[in-house]
Amino acid sequence: MIRYKKVGYCALNVSDLQKSSDFYERLVGLEKVESDDPNTAFFRCSRDHHNLVLTQDQEPGLNRIGLELETPELVEQTYEKFMKLGLNPVEVSKKELDILNQFTSFRVVDPFGITFEFYSDMIQVPYEFKPTVADIQKLGHVVLKTPNVEDSVKFYTEVFNFQVSDYVGGTGSSKKGGAFFRCFPVSYHHSFAVFESEEASLHHVNFMVSSIDDIGKGVNRFENNGVDVVFGPGRHAPSGAIFLYVLDPDGLTIEYSFGMEEFPEENPRKPKFLQPVPGIMDLWGGAADPRMASLGKIKGLVRETIKA
Q1: What's the CA gap between 288 and 108, in Å, rounded?
Q2: With a threshold of 0.85, does the pTM exceed it?
Q3: Is it true that the peptide bond before 185 is cis, omega within 30 degrees of 0?
Q4: How many CB atoms within 10 Å of residue 34?
Q5: Cα separation values, 75 from 4, 104, 135, Å
Q6: 64, 115 contact by CB (below 8 A)
Q7: 80 contact partners, CB below 8 Å, separation of at least 6
Q8: pLDDT tens across 71-106, in order?
Q9: pLDDT-above-90 percentage for the chain
Q10: Which domains, from first to last, does the chain contain?
Q11: What is the dihedral of CA 158, 160, 162, 166, to 10 degrees?
């Protein structure tokens, strides 16, 4: 059984590395970590070497999602499992591991073109993360768009051992227009989610903050610096989280959230099928700007990268 420790990091492609680095450090509140690679920037919100990776690219979007497993033995077992399933996992080269400050890691591309990286050990920075403009707790979750929610649920639950927390109803007989997952046994309502769309793409990346003040102060800070707020502040019905969504310099969607339902490892409640009525995503009655989650391409370059 695959057991996860957390969503370890998210890697994004950005069109202007310096501009995006300034945004994530100065306005979001992540700490930049030194790197010898001029085309890559690493950021952290924990003792981990990185929780966000930015890579210079012509087209912004999602590069990969890093999932931290509980033990090195699980990394090996999961690799073997994926080999038997024909997913063709590819080990990350020693050269790249040195850049990433990680130990044994491998990557797979899921049926929807998303690259996932599996690992258990990463170099720890010798001092604690010190919050600046926001008291960020952790990288919370990554949400994707998918052309088929039902197929996504089947793959992520049966192959990755994600556990469904809730569904949001959609069109078609499956009535699963969206699904929220826990990377078992992570307790938070969702560390991953998918919503139905015409093609696979990034929806948003989330950072969990420590208080509602981080949300309120964030609104003013972002707006005062010309950052587009595209949804919120508000409260999600599925998880109970208070949220704020903004656009980064490339138009990728980033979320702050505070508070979230948690699940026990044993005997969790059954998933709910939530009716997609107005207000389901904001109990306070707000509506999202159409630009929210409108950009976030999944690039074929990801496949080329993992063959090295």
Answers
A1: 33
A2: yes
A3: yes
A4: 6
A5: 10, 8, 32
A6: yes
A7: none
A8: 999 999 999 999 999 999 999 999 999 999 999 999
A9: 87
A10: 4-129+298-305 (3.10.180.10), 136-297 (3.10.180.10)
A11: -60
